[in-house]
Write a structure and sequence with these properties.
Blueprint: E1 16-22, H1 43-55, E2 60-67, E3 71-78, H2 80-85, H3 88-96, H4 103-109, H5 116-132, H6 136-155, E4 167-170, H7 174-185, H8 187-190, H9 204-212, H10 240-254, H11 264-272, H12 277-290, H13 298-307, H14 316-323
Antiparallel strand pairs: 1-3, 1-4, 2-3
């Protein structure tokens, strides 16, 4: 029996999660179907457009994404503090950006007076919306359902387009987050869909590179904020420059027809995370194969399992082998 999603998410331990959605019936999300020769490349735009829309609605940040031929990778961060800071009207207004709602929702958002029974109804809805706007399952539902409907209409068929459940795994420490992001960003290169990160269309790494060339970071993605310090804005505790260099170095090594080596700046970043270069290359090439459950050093994994009252530490041996290197 599949594990309930609530038994996989522990905000006490981490806000970061790696999610994967796969298509069924040999369906193609994008790319060219080698059996029919039909191109589905335009569907990439559907996914990216929807992702960027959801990032403006949910209290969930996008750290990394890659749209592959028959599956989608995401690294997400739940921003519980943001959703708590929203007023009741803001919560309903956010919800209405995606869902129609009814006249009661519209009346409330406009600030018009409500009867006592109407206020009781809207209070219950606000509690529900606030929870859903920081729920990965609702985020993935809001992403996948519209894509499935459009793809089924285009394919002139009915039934499932995606597998029934998306896969998610908790990323419990900085090393796990960084390795998973690089793994996701380098997916098109490993699959020979692109020659370099900057030519990897409809991926987070391409958005980050385009923004970096203008001296900026993309508004739609969780930014890099450098090393930890007081009054630090929310973001990834690495520098954007170091991360882009590390991904470029790693991508060159993973492509067998290119010469490459880990640069000095990348070595320093890996040293800070206590990850040997050989471990880094293995994880960023085979992350999903190595780690089947939560990912992090064994100390973080133990705490995560305790908080969720799980009797066994799934994947503890691999977490120890690849991440306990300090």
């Amino acid at each position: 029996m599949p594990t309930p999603r609530k038994a996989l998410v522990s905000l006490e331990d981490t806000p970061f999660y790696h999610c994967i959605s796969r298509c069924v019936r040999k369906a193609f999300l994008c790319g060219v179907d080698k059996y029919t020769g039909q191109s589905y490349e335009h569907r990439r735009g559907w996914v990216e457009q929807r992702l960027l829309q959801l990032a403006e609605v949910f209290a969930i940040d996008i750290c990394a994404f890659a749209v592959m031929s028959n599956h989608l990778h995401l690294v997400l961060r739940i921003d519980a503090e943001l959703v708590k800071s929203w007023s009741d009207i803001e919560v309903v207004a956010q919800w209405l950006k995606l869902f129609k709602g009814d006249s009661l929702n519209q009346i409330f958002v406009k600030g018009q007076p409500l009867e006592s029974y109407q206020q009781a109804i809207i209070n219950q809805r606000i509690k529900q919306y606030r929870t859903r706007l920081m729920d990965i399952s609702w985020f993935m539902r809001a992403l996948n359902e519209p894509i499935a409907r459009k793809a089924n209409a285009e394919d002139k068929c009915t039934g499932r387009f995606w597998e029934g459940r998306f896969k998610s795994q908790a990323l419990l420490d900085e090393a796990a987050v960084l390795a998973c992001m690089a793994y996701v960003d380098l997916n098109p290169i490993r699959a020979k869909m692109a020659d370099s990160p900057e030519t990897s269309d409809f991926t987070s790494i391409q958005l980050r590179i385009k923004a970096a060339l203008k001296g900026k970071q993309p508004d739609s993605l969780l930014p890099f904020v450098g090393n930890e310090h007081q009054d630090m804005p929310k973001g990834l505790m690495f520098s954007a420059k170091d991360y882009l260099q590390l991904v470029d170095d790693t991508g060159r090594i993973q492509r067998h027809d290119k010469r490459g080596a880990i640069s000095h700046s990348s070595e320093q970043l890996l040293h800070r995370l206590h990850i040997p270069a050989e471990n880094w290359l293995k994880m960023t090439a085979e992350f999903a194969e190595i780690f089947k459950g939560p990912v992090g050093n064994t100390q973080e994994l133990t705490l995560y399992c305790e908080h969720l009252e799980r009797k066994r530490r799934q994947g503890a041996a691999n977490c120890h082998r690849w991440l306990d290197c300090s």
